[in-house]
Write a structure and sequence with these properties.
Length: about 400
């Protein structure tokens, strides 16, 4: 029997440099998810950002509604909705509507908000964002399960609030909480029995915290009478693969430096080397990114499985390091050569081939006997004198030459 099927997806912030047409960049993000849908990817998660210029999608709900019309199978998640930026009832209503119009394909990823500049524009104190996320999540979970909620906090109020439509998904839309290194996301996920979304799983800090964060999640679930499932745990990391390591390295030179500039100068995350070394080498050697072949991607996922103790979905961080043609090819190679390793899609094929190979002599002997029997029947019925010479030759029964005799 086949085991649990690992899922694959993409986490699309997205990251688009300032030297290109933003309208076409958004259209390319849509095309990427359409391509993923065709290739058999399971999930695509779309971010929410309002400043800093690179991460262009302001409303993941609008983006998901568009994608729902242009895809058939892939599930679509908010990656993530920044809870302090929305009144919980309004956000729950939008997600519930998406649950209906996608026929259950929507997923609800939540977090406190990633860019301090977003919060600053709205007058939200960054120090309060995680508390605001917890307060919002306390009411969003029951609202999205069709319950009636009354609550009052320093920033929102609900009076006998409920959604007009019963949820399409039962008991409610799937919810996952974003997590980096701190215990905030893991604690919130465990408290409500939700999924965990480890966005920086391959960074040094995120990788080292994987097993600890899952333990925190399990402990929080136990303390609150909930359970959590490793299959609902998603790990995110950047990948670009090609036929050879050399080709992959050449491909990412297209856009890697612009991506690093954003994190070095704007997002202020320590992803770029500061010692003058090659950033490609730095990303590979640190384990942060896969820039190589399908075998390198397989090794990275195995490494994550061992460190985490097991998870349900690996998601590529969409990054635009390569041009679009090579990006699409990388996604295709993942589907062709990496998915089967973890989804056991070739287990029965391998067993069938080995069985046929092992018994080849027996099967060939039976086939030859069957053919010989038919030849004998034909000769017995017709007689050799009544069969044309070319047919006898084809049967191997033609008149032998003097030399052959």
């Amino acid at each position: 029997m086949a085991g649990t099927k690992m899922r694959f997806g993409a986490f699309i912030a997205p990251f688009h440099p300032l030297d290109e047409n933003p309208t076409l960049a958004l259209e390319r993000d849509i095309e990427l998810v359409q391509w993923m849908d065709k290739l058999g990817y399971d999930e695509a998660w779309v971010g929410e950002h309002h400043s800093a210029g690179y991460e262009l999608i302001a409303s993941p709900e609008l983006f998901i509604a568009t994608l729902a019309e242009r895809t058939k199978h892939i599930r679509l998640g908010t990656g993530v909705s920044s809870l302090p930026y929305h009144h919980p009832l309004m956000l729950a209503d939008r997600i519930n509507q998406l649950d209906h119009i996608t026929r259950g394909r929507v997923m609800f990823g939540v977090g406190p908000g990633a860019l301090p500049s977003d919060a600053f524009m709205m007058g939200i104190e960054v120090a309060k964002q995680r508390d605001m996320m917890d307060e919002a999540l306390d009411v969003l979970v029951p609202l999205l399960r069709g319950e009636t909620v009354t609550a009052k906090t320093s920033w929102f109020e609900l009076n006998n609030a409920r959604l007009q439509m019963t949820p399409y998904s039962r008991p409610g839309v799937e919810i996952a909480v974003a997590s980096q290194v701190s215990p905030t996301g893991a604690t919130a996920a465990g408290r409500h029995g939700l999924g965990l979304l480890s966005i920086g799983a391959t960074s040094a800090g995120g990788f080292n915290a994987l097993s600890t964060n899952w333990a925190i999640c399990e402990d929080a679930a136990k303390d609150n009478g909930k359970t959590v499932d490793r299959n609902a745990w998603r790990l995110v990391g950047p990948v670009h693969i090609a036929e050879t390591r050399e080709q992959a390295r050449a491909n990412v030179r297209f856009g890697l430096e612009k991506w690093l500039y954003y994190f070095r100068e704007v997002a202020a995350l320590p992803l770029a080397p500061t010692d003058g070394s090659d950033p490609v080498d730095a990303l590979i050697n640190s384990g942060m990114a896969v820039i190589g072949t399908p075998d390198d991607a397989i090794a990275q996922i195995e490494r994550l499985k061992q460190q985490s103790g097991g998870f349900g979905c690996f998601m590529q961080l969409a990054h635009n390091w390569a041009d679009f043609d090579n990006t699409k090819k990388s996604y295709e190679m993942m589907a062709r050569y990496v998915f089967p390793k973890f989804q056991e899609t070739n287990v029965n094929r391998e067993a069938s081939l080995e069985w046929a190979r092992t018994n080849r002599e027996t099967f060939m002997g039976q086939a030859m006997m069957a053919v010989g029997s038919r030849v004998a029947q034909h000769i017995e019925k017709k007689g050799t004198e009544n069969i044309r010479p070319e047919i006898l030759d084809a049967m191997g029964l033609g008149k032998k030459t003097d030399a052959a005799q």
